[in-house]
Amino acid sequence: MTYLAEIESTVAGIPCLIGVTEFSSVRGSYSYNAPSDMDYYGYTESDWEVLDRRGRPAAWLDRKLTGADRCRIEREIEEAMTEDSY
User: Fold this and answer.
1) pLDDT tens by residue, 30-50
2) 17: closest CA among 77, 66, 75, 64?
3) What is the pTM of this model?
4) Residue 58: CB atoms within 10 Å
């Protein structure tokens, strides 16, 4: 599979890669007439999968993900992907 990016990360203390399959970021309008809070503040969406260090899907490592891991990885993706766009 082709990824938009492969980002180094860890899951349960184990080094791995995160393969980003989709990424979109919408900046907020900060306008009082924005139709919703998401339009006002903006949002980021990403789809990704956990890979081993060789770039192969790692279902065994994906099962070790915690909610905190998911939040941290999504922040790492956002930082890496927005750095590339400047």
Assistant:
1) 777 777 777 788 888 999 999
2) 77
3) 0.82
4) 20
